[in-house]
Structure formats: C-alpha cells, structure tokens
Amino acid sequence: MDMKDSIIHEKLQWNADMENKLNRFPIVMHSHQWLKGTDYHYHPGLEIHITHDGTGTMVVGKQIWLQYPRSVLVFRGMVPHQMISKSSYKRTVISINFGEDDSHTLPSLHRLIDFGWIPEASCLSFTLTPKQFQQLEDMCKTLWHELKVREIGWERMALSHTLELTVFLERSLGDKQTATLSPQANGKVTDLVQFCSDYVCQSLGEDLSLKAVSKRFAVSEEYLTRSFTKEMGISFYQYVLLQRVAEGKRLLREAPDVSITEIAYMIGFPSSSHFSKHFKTLTGETPSAFRHKIFEPQTGQ
C-alpha cells in the first residue's frame, strides 16, 4: 500500500462542490473554520492551507506534513490531499482557479497570474514567523471582506488581494526569516528517501525500526532520520506509523474475517493494544469501532 493511493480514508473523492464554486468565481475562501480532519480528495486549481490553532497531519500526494499554528501549505488541488486530526483545528483555506489559458475568466490579466513557482506533484510548506503570519492574516481578512460584502468592484479587489497574498508567499521562498520551508520545491526526493519509503510500504510486517532500516541501506541512523524528516516533512517513526495504520484500515475494511489481533501482527504491531492505541490517535476511533461502523447496517436513513 502506498501513501499516494490511500492514507486514512477508504477512497479518493472528487470535490464537486469546490469545482462548482470555482466555476462561479475563481477565488473561494473558507476563513477560520474549526474542523476535525477532511476526506481524501482533490479538486481544480490551487490551494493555500493556513493553520491558526490546533494540530494535525496534512497528507499531500506522498508527502506528510505536521501542521500547527503558523503553518502554511501551498499546492495544486489536483494532488490528492487530506487533513488528519484527532481533535478540532482552526484553518483558513483559499482555493484559486484562473484556468490554463487566456480564454478563462479575466483573460486580459492572465499574463500577470503566474503560479509556476508552485510544484506540480507535491507542495510547498512554510512555518512563518509571528510577524509574517500576522501580515498573512491581515491579507486574508481583507480578502474575506471583499468576498463576503461584495461592494462595487469586489471581483477586481478580490483578484488584487489574492495576487498580493500569493506574491507574499512566493517572496517568502527566499526570505531567510521564514522558519521552515520544504527543500523539495521540485517535488523530488533523494534516492535514499525514495527507496526507504518504498521499502516501508512493502514491508510493514517486518522490523522497521530505525536501526534495522538504516542498516539495510548502509547509512547511519542519524543520517537516515535527518534526511527523511528534511525531505518528507515527518519523522521516519511517524511515517512508519501512518503507513501501518493506513494498511490496518484497509484490512479492517476489506478482510472482515481477519481478527483485529491478526491484522495487528500482519502490519508489524506487537499486539492488538498497540495497534488500537495508534489507530485511535490518528483516526479518533478504535479499530473495532471503525469496523463496526462499516459493517453494521445503517438505520434512520
């Protein structure tokens, strides 16, 4: 099982609601929403995901990013993505879709809209300084006002504020004050990290301790974990846990005759209690509750 195919949710979903909203106007904003995770989905255009409060794990393609206050992700909406959080977190999401050619909305300004700095198959991750984050929040408030109040010329104002916001983030790529930035802006990872992540996906029932895997790839434990965290945005240990829980969820759904204890052993957990603990931490429910929800007939519908 590969991270790009299924992380936590059972299937990838097309966000038709977002598509319809972007067809009506190419800028859609959800401001300061309190949510507890999202479906595994994709949609047209670009997405700017801003975390204000709380924590969670954002999956974008094959990358996994821990999100906390002042975290910002920028990626193309067609890359499958999902937010996983065991408790509510506050976010702002801005979706943008100006099309690929000048036959779309606002054709005369199309030449000014350049999002070539955003990778095609992965994402950019920022942890902004308090000052930078306040600047970003101020821009978001101004944009939100235009989109909600809709005074004369609001479309042009919304466009100008959106371009201002995206240029601000693009300039942050080269700002030394920016606390954290994904080094893999081209969406690529080194061979070591790629081989390592592929091996984890194919060997979940094996010994995947840092010591065992670093020995297999003939590198030091320190080098492997540093490289992995730098390029994947998550520690090696956390990546293994996410993969095991994702595979456990698939087996709970597709192998109803296999016991939870057997599944735990199959995916590398030493006991069903360890499996249940990590499963609940990441999904907010126990394996038995998840299985019950799937196979029990729905009532009251």
From TrEMBL:
Alphabetically ordered keywords of this record: DNA-binding, Transcription, Transcription regulation
HTH araC/xylS-type domain residues: 194-293
Protein name: HTH-type transcriptional activator RhaR
Classification of source organism: Bacteria, Bacillati, Bacillota, Bacilli, Bacillales
PANTHER family in the cross-refs: ARAC-FAMILY TRANSCRIPTIONAL REGULATOR, HTH-TYPE TRANSCRIPTIONAL REGULATOR EXSA
Transmembrane segments: none
Keyword Transcription regulation: yes
One GO molecular-function entry: sequence-specific DNA binding
UniProt xrefs under InterPro entries: AraC-bd, HTH_AraC, HTH_AraC-typ_CS
